[in-house]
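quick q for whoever's on today - can somebody do inverse folding on this one?? i tried earlier but teh output was garbage lol. tokens:
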């Protein structure tokens, strides 16, 4: 070997020793990568998973066992052989008391695990250290296996475990806005993964991978079709297709739900009306429910968008939301639920759109059947980068109220902007409604503890598509992940969840984890800054919601325009929702309402959501409103710059393929953040007529040039 070559080889070896080696990945494996534990970190796992004790089989237990084998093989090497529990150290024993006499003999305190939770315990059987993953039902065992593997994946000790975990929310579900032609409303990750055309005869392998990923988070329900739905979904051929998916999902503990179009009795039932009080309409839905349960015996129920954005509903017949929901609930009976969305605002209503959901639903509190859930978006407008919590939370103590979050980033830069939504979800969940004194958080409404409700729901509008990375970008996987983890435990810390996700998805190296988690935690705030600072909202381009459109005005309805929301004029900017304005504040508990309406109390982050203020109004920082607005826009751009720098520095810890894609997307985000800042400043300056604060660069284009930009092929519509 020539000397330079020898030195070259040595150099390579040395650099391999200092920098972790990352092999190319496309993101398909999500947080379930099971890459080998590096040699230096192996010692604590020397005995882990030496063998898996056999257990009686159900389809779900088979999956649990297969997952354990797959995980241990990937993480620790050779696949463990079967062994009787107690034969040697490091055996993993999984099952329920019914399926495993060895578990039954242990007499574990399984009550705390409930129906879906699990216990993971290190016990001694015949003097040998054994890990027991036990549950009351087989699905709990599968969840426990995923948890156990995640401990090794994140390099936690597993030799002295005493974990009890049970979900705090009963129905933890994804809502797909997927259409039958495979387009996805507000989808930025390719086509719908449901290949309706080939179903039920061909079941793509991806369906099981989807179910497995969801089960790893404890997600136990999925609504297959868009809430803007077609009656065709409820016809026999499409029920057979949905049934085929349900068959794949069942062993993973996932029930299938369908969005139901309220006018189906007319469109596929041959009736002249869909009036929920009409006996023929009731009979149609009862027969339809019976038909569905024949095909899908564990069908979860219906999700309904009624009398909202042009969808049909009971109000078309002078009936109420309660009439409509209860009629469907009676058809379903004890077999499932009806999830009725509170995202309603009517064409006829001239009132502030933010008030309409509350006004329409609050009067019916206590009038819904026990198997009806009212599903409420986190805020009163529509999944904006920041919204105060929806006033319905806490306001309907005698009804089941569910949370609807959006995981897909319709208003937060689609798949190319890095925005970890954990802090946004957490902000809503931790908001205090004060309806029963301090500590009446939204999370406690959602987990049912505040008003002692048993039927609880957390739903997330999915960001999943045919893209290899499932979610359109690697970091958007974190939003699916954090949603699932919060649905299991709405009180969980989203910083901790971000750290888990970063370790599972990329690397356990603290030199990677610490900066990435910091970057993720600040990312949504950066988006708020460069899109909608200080409580501004709904300023995106018309209809596709891509890019800035603060000038959007006119058209079909006022509350689909930006000018309706920001109300900028020579005198100032913002929507007055105090008692002097639309009085939306009055929909909150008195102490919350008083704070939002009081300039001394309201947080600057919500300022222009609730107040119309002069351009010279002094923010809490002492800046004028105009200066504060401009500097926040620029701060958002600087935040994206910082993310780009952080990510560039992390190249040694990430495989080249994923590192490059994230880097490219951050560059797109940087350009678009700048565009948001410049276009918004150019537009609002026409009203403020104030100079830019010192050091702020003028927008490079004229307002007319920004306004002229058009994006007919923006995705998601
Ligand atoms: C499914 C917003 C979105 C629509 C969506 C609607 C809803 O208006 O832009 O695409 O429709 O919310 O949640 O029903």
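ok took a stab at it. sequence:
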């Amino acid at each position: 070997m020539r000397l330079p070559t020898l030195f070259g080889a040595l150099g390579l070896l040395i650099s391999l020793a200092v920098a972790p080696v990352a092999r190319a990945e496309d993101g398909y494996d999500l947080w379930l990568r099971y890459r080998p534990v590096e040699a230096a970190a192996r010692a604590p796992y020397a005995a882990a998973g030496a063998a898996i004790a056999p257990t009686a089989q159900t389809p779900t237990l088979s999956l649990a066992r297969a997952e354990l084998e797959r995980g241990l093989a990937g993480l620790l090497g050779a696949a463990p052989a079967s062994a009787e529990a107690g034969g040697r150290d490091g055996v993993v024993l999984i099952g329920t008391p019914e399926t495993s006499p060895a578990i039954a003999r242990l007499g574990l305190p399984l009550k705390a695990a409930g129906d879906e939770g699990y216990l993971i315990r290190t016990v001694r059987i015949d003097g040998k250290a054994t890990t027991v993953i036990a549950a009351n039902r087989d699905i709990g065992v599968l969840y426990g296996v995923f948890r156990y593997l995640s401990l090794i994946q994140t390099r936690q000790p597993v030799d002295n475990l005493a974990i009890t975990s049970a979900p705090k929310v009963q129905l933890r579900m994804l809502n797909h806005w997927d259409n039958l032609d495979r387009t996805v409303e507000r989808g930025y990750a390719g086509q719908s993964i449901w290949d309706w055309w080939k179903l039920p005869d061909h079941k793509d392998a991806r369906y099981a991978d989807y179910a497995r990923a969801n089960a790893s988070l404890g997600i136990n329900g999925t609504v297959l079709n868009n809430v803007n739905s077609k009656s065709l979904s409820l016809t026999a051929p499409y029920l057979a297709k949905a049934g085929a998916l349900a068959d794949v999902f069942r062993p993973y503990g996932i029930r299938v739900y369908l969005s139901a179009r309220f006018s189906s009795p007319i469109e596929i039932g041959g009736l002249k009306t869909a009036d929920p009080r009409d006996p023929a309409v009731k009979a149609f839905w009862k027969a339809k429910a019976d038909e569905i349960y024949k095909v899908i015996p564990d069908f979860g129920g219906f999700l309904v968008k009624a009398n909202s954005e042009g969808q049909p509903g009971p109000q078309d017949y002078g009936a109420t939301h309660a009439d409509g929901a209860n009629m469907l609930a009676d058809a379903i009976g004890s077999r499932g639920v009806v999830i009725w969305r509170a995202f309603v605002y009517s064409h006829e209503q001239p009132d502030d759109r933010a008030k309409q959901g509350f006004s329409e639903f609050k009067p019916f509190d206590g009038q819904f059947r026990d198997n009806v859930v009212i599903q409420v978006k986190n805020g009163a407008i529509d999944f904006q980068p920041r919204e105060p919590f929806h006033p319905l939370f806490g306001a309907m103590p005698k009804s089941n109220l569910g949370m609807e979050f959006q995981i897909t980033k319709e208003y937060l830069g689609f798949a190319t902007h890095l925005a970890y939504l954990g802090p946004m979800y957490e902000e809503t969940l931790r908001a205090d409604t004060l309806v029963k004194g301090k500590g009446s958080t939204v999370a406690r409404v959602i987990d049912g503890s505040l008003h002692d409700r048993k039927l609880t729901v957390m739903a997330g509008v999915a960001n999943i598509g045919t893209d290899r990375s499932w979610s359109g970008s690697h970091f958007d996987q974190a939003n699916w992940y954090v949603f699932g983890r919060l649905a299991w435990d709405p009180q969980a810390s989203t910083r901790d969840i971000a750290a888990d996700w970063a370790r599972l998805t990329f690397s356990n190296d603290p030199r990677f984890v610490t900066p990435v988690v910091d970057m993720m935690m600040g990312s949504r705030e950066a988006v708020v800054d460069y899109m909608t600072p200080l409580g501004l909202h709904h300023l995106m381009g018309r209809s596709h919601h891509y890019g800035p459109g603060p000038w959007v005005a006119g058209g079909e309805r006022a509350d689909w325009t930006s000018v309706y929301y920001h109300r900028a004029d020579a005198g100032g900017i913002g929507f007055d929702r105090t008692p002097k304005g639309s009085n939306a504040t009055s929909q909150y508990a008195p102490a919350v309402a008083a704070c939002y309406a009081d300039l001394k109390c309201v947080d600057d982050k919500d300022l222009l959501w609730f107040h119309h203020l002069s351009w010279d109004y002094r923010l809490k920082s002492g800046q004028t409103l105009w200066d504060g607005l401009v500097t926040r826009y620029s701060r958002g751009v600087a935040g994206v710059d910082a993310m780009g720098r952080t990510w560039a520095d992390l190249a040694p810890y990430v495989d080249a393929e994923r590192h490059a894609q994230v880097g490219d997307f951050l560059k797109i985000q940087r350009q678009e953040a700048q565009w948001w800042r410049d276009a918004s400043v150019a537009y609002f300056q026409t009203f403020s007529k104030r100079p830019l604060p010192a050091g702020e660069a003028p927008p490079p284009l004229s307002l007319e040039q920004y306004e002229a930009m058009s994006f007919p092929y923006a995705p998601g519509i």
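fwiw Residues 656-688 form the longest helix (33 residues). also Residues 171-505 form a domain with the TIM Barrel fold (CATH 3.20.20.80). so keep that in mind when u check it
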